[in-house]
Amino acid sequence: MKMASSQIRLKILPSVRCLFDKVVQVKVEGLAPHKAVQLRSRLVDDKGVLFKASALYKADERGLVDVSSDPSLGGSYTGVEPMGLLWAMAPETPHKKVVKKNVLSPTLIEIAAHNGDTGELLACETNERGYMVEGMKRIPVEEGRVRGVLFIPPGKGPFPAIVDLYTFGGGLSEQRASLLANKGFVVLALAYYGYQDLPKNPKRLDLEYFEEAANYLQNHPEVFPGIGVISMSHSGALGLSMASFLPGITATVCINGCVANTVIPLHYKDIVIPPLQHNLQNIRMLESGIIDIRNVMPDPTLEKNRASLIPIERASCHFLFAVSEDDHNWTSALFAKRAAELLENQGKESFEVVSYPNAGHLLEVPHMPFCPSGFHAALGCAVVFGGGPKAHSEAQLDLWERVQEFFKKHLNSSSAN
């Protein structure tokens, strides 16, 4: 524990080291009774971007501040928010989200207590938020055309398995995949562009690539028969396509995705699914100078757009559609509604839709700092994602539990814990 004062102690409980999705308790002890103290959090991500938050607290008669039960009186958030110092962190550089290129090292969150009147540093500590439990295997995958990273939980397999399609702005994110693997799943974080020797700006996407990845995972000796898929945003249509065309997909989670193909033509054998035609006239410029593209993508079930629809009625798996009602990347609530209608019209009931008011586009793992806007690769500029920090954080917490329960229920999950 690092201390700026021998009298004042900042504690992170139960330990300074934990997994990223875990809740910690932040306490400051040894303050003068009823003293104002400002808590500040700070994170520098793998691209060197600084994220920070602050909150003002008042010590009780014992000189104690407990963030898990005491209200913040001002700053980045107010009220009792046990993890507010994390989810309320904002980037110093606008339109940035936290980037973690590789999960072998923890994300470091420095939390400091400052005198509420003078700003003097009183005490500080670093929360080391890791991604892999002891004994987990992280295996880079270069198998045929398939590129990604495979996570295998400790213990005796076989395990239920999931393909994680999280590619945002190119490259590969391992955070969600590794944290899911801690729950007893084998997870393949699958890249499909902009990673290693994969094309940075593909002119088409071949579903055969995703089929090869699914077969690789399904044939792994540590894996039970039947695999799951989790996707978000653009990759939503890819996850739905895997469920619709490929055998062996038994559970699919689609987070703020579209039931139609978007941006890039999708090919499978002799089938071509063209991208949904967008209407750039519906772009709105906000007072902040960034753009709102919520209404750029039309209703995919209109007759003129139906060629772009993913034929999810062909699928034999269970679906979980997660929707942010304040998503400004596109109308994900409409897309989920249309997906439900397509399934219902075929007499299928193996789906559920969960909706989150006031949440924005990028629903991440718990306690991830809120990202209100970001660079849109297809448009080449910053766009607003919608949502508010508190509601978005609560949505992330709720969805994380739902995703685990969904996969445990619909995959062969006797080994999942």
Content of β-strand: 25-35%
Give the end-to-end Cα distance, rounded to a whole number of Å: 33 Å
Summed up, the domain count is 2
What is the CATH architecture assignment of the largest domain? Answer: 3-Layer(aba) Sandwich
- Weakly predicted, low-confidence segments: 413-417
Radius of gyration: 22 Å
**What is the CATH H-level superfamily of the largest domain?**
Alpha/Beta hydrolase fold, catalytic domain
What is the CATH topology classification name of the largest domain? Rossmann fold
**Which whole number gives the mean pLDDT?**
94
Q: Which of globular, elongated, flat, extended, rod-shaped describes the shape?
A: globular
Structure annotation, total helices: 6
Tally of strands: 26
Please outline the major beta sheet.
8 strands, mixed
Helix content: 10-25%
CATH class designation of the largest domain = Alpha Beta
Helix and strand composition category: alpha/beta
Description:
The chain is of the alpha/beta class. It has 2 domains: 2-130, Sandwich (Immunoglobulin-like), CATH 2.60.40; 137-410, Alpha/Beta hydrolase fold, catalytic domain (Rossmann fold, 3-Layer(aba) Sandwich). 17% of the residues lie in helices and 32% in strands. Strands 1, 3, 5, 6, 8, 9, 10 and 11 form an 8-stranded mixed β-sheet that branches. An 8-stranded mixed β-sheet has the order 12-13-15-14-17-18-23-24, sandwiched between helices. It is globular and about 75 Å long.
